[in-house]
Amino acid sequence: VQCVSDADTILLKQVLEAAEEAVTVIADDTDIMCLLLHHFQNSDISRNIYLKTMKIQKESDKHVTYSIEDVNQTVGKVILQNIIFEHVFTGWIR
Predict the structure, then answer these.
(1) pTM for the model
(2) CA 6: distance to chain centroid?
(3) If you count Cβ atoms within 10 Å of the first and of the last residue's Cβ in the chain, which end, N or C, has fewer?
(4) What number is the average pLDDT over the span 27-35?
(5) Which helix H or strand E contains 53, and what residues bound it?
(6) Chain centroid, CA 11 distance in Å
(7) What is the mean predicted confidence (pLDDT) over 52-80?
(8) CA 30, CA 10: separation in Å to the nearest integer?
(9) Which residues fall within 8 angstroms of residue 41, CB to CB, at 6 or more apart?
(10) Are 69 and 47 in contact (CB under 8 A)?
(11) Beta partners for residue 25, in sequence order
């Protein structure tokens, strides 16, 4: 599929459409993590959504897989409510 618009948005749309099943997104993109967290807390998507890193950790020679549900429970509520703004703002001030 060629993305004529933002690839992150298209990817997220496909994840949300497959929300009844377990979904693993393979990416090293903080945009994807922020979008998944934002939509996870603001919709009825499946609890079986994971983000797997593409890069391998040097210490373990393994990819890291994050459960979006676990990250959502670990991160503070205020951060989650503002995660899109925070991500854009911190990227903007570099």
Answers:
(1) 0.71
(2) 15
(3) C
(4) 82
(5) strand 49-56
(6) 10
(7) 81
(8) 15
(9) 72, 80, 81
(10) yes
(11) 51
Q: What are phi and psi of 46, to 5 degrees?
A: -55, 150
Task: Count the Cβ atoms, other than its own, within 10 Å of residue 51.
Answer: 22
- 16, 39 contact by CB (below 8 A): yes
Q: Which residue has the tokens 């890069």?
A: 55
Half-sphere exposure of 55 (CA within 13 A, CB side): 5
Using 50, 70 and 90 to split pLDDT, how confident is the model at 44? low
In the numeric block, which tokens belong to residue 3? 């993305």
- The amino acid sitting at 8 is D
- Residue 65's identity, in one-letter code, is T
Burial class (CB in 10 A: 0-12, 13-18, 19+), 29: middle
Check residue 6 and report its DSSP letter.
-
Distance (Å, rounded) from C-alpha 4 to C-alpha 12? Answer: 15
